[in-house]
Amino acid sequence: MDIRIDPLVVPATLDAADAADFVDLVRIGNAEWRRASGTDLHDDDPHELLGRLRETPYSVTVGAVARVDGRVVGGTRVDIDKTTSESAEVDLVLAEGHDDGSVADALLAESERIARRHGRTLLHTWTIHRPDPVDDRLVPPTGAGWIPERDAATRRMLRAGYALGQVERNSAFDLDGPYDAVRRLLESALTKAGPDYRPVWWVGATPPAYAAGYAKAIARMSSDVPAGELSFEQSVWDAERVLQRDVRFAEAGVLMGVTLVIHEPTGEVAAFNELSIARDRTRPTSQWGTLVMPEHRGRRLGTIVKCIGLQRWHEHVPESPVVSTFNAEENRYMLDVNEAVGFAPAGYAGAWEKRLA
Q1: Which residue intervals define the domain N-acetyltransferase in the entry (predicted)?
Q2: Domain 172-345 in the same topology as domain 3-170
Q3: pLDDT at position 300, please?
């Protein structure tokens, strides 16, 4: 098989003359994740992805496409956070029939070359899997969760020298279902938290008064969430990075809803939750970061940000049918919150790591 690897062009617009490869990769990636997960919860919106891939003072993405007989059959993106020094995230997409074999191997090798050119030696990537029971299971070092040992995604990652560091559960919440449990849990959690903790919610651009505290909380996602056997660097976030992200998302038609809990005695952000949807508001909603700062745990703040976010989001975006979220299988506290609120398992993700020599 003659495989040609070309650089990925990030076009100025989706209808630009050089946009064909980018559009092809979005289509191929969405089809692959639907095959692997059995759901449409993880589709990328091309407008949103285009906005995310443009270089900023904080991040840069470098990619490549693979062609067989002139046809695009896969690609890779290497996402680099400029505020870190050694790590990069790899996002591999493969067309049906090429998800395990020489095309996958060539793209993973190209990902390593890109990473090395940018001085990166610690790679992370994720694979998605259905929740169907199987006999042959690969269990991470945490002992929590498993993924199928013999499916294509697992085989290619092991063959490339990646190690499974963690399993995450993908859970879904029916936004059109009853909210009795949400309201009941929220009332109880607010009572438990007491008057020292004040919830805040907004949709769209971040209020400037909260930008710095929100940024500080986002940064702690790289150090304060369960990471299994994965090694993560501390990412740097400040108010300007949050506000710049808001502008890019607005240009792409992306809407975000954010819930904070403010610790009144200090003014610090004690917990946060993020919900996001692309310009098609009838599509699934993605839950991004959810974190309770370690010094404020034990007061049910995770329940508060989850419940307020779901209620207010459904009021603001009633067309979206479902919220999709990922949590580490060893993060029993957050899984307990999800299950109590009404999230149900929809699949599992393998979190992989490779340290280059």
Answers
A1: 12-186
A2: yes
A3: 96
Q: Please tell me the CATH superfamily of domain 3-170, with its number.
A: Gcn5-related N-acetyltransferase (GNAT) (3.40.630.30)
Q: Can you read off the two tokens belonging to residue 310?
A: 């779901």
Is the Cβ–Cβ distance between 258 and 290 less than 8 Å? no
Q: 3-class DSSP state for residue 276?
A: strand
Q: In the chain, which stretches have pLDDT less than 50?
A: none
Query: Helices in 69-145 by DSSP H: which ranges?
Result: 102-117
Other Cβ atoms within 10 Å of 27 Cβ, number: 16
pLDDT in tens, 315-335: 999 999 999 999 999 999 889
What is the number of alpha carbons within 13 Å of residue 179 lying toward its C-beta? 15
The answer to whether 278 and 48 have CB atoms below 8 angstroms apart is yes
- The per-residue pLDDT for 221 is 86
Q: Could you state, in order of their start, the residue ranges of all structural domains in the chain?
A: 3-170, 172-345
Q: Give the other-Cβ count within 10 Å of 97's Cβ.
A: 10
CATH architecture of 172-345: 3-Layer(aba) Sandwich (3.40)
Q: Given this model, what pLDDT does residue 61 score?
A: 97
What contacts 90, CB < 8 A, 6 or more positions away? 76, 77, 78, 79, 108, 111, 115, 123, 124, 125
* Residue where the block lists tokens 């949050």: 242
DSSP letters of 41-90?
A: TTPPPHHHHHHHHS--SSEEEEEEEEEETTEEEEEEEEEEETTSSSEEEE
Cβ atoms < 10 Å from Cβ of 353: 21
Q: Produce one character per residue of 224-245: b if its CB has 16 or more CB atoms within 10 Å, e if not.
A: ebbbbebeeeebebbbebbeeb
Answer whether 231's CB lies under 8 Å from 89's CB: no
pTM of the model: 0.94
pLDDT at site 225: 77
> Which token pair is 28?
């191929």
**Order of strands across the sheet that contains 71-81:** 3-7, 59-68, 71-81, 87-94, 122-129, 344-355, 163-174, 322-328, 285-292, 268-277, 255-263, 197-203
Q: What Cα–Cα distance (Å) separates residue 238 from each residue in 93, 123, 210, 212, 213?
A: 32, 24, 11, 6, 8
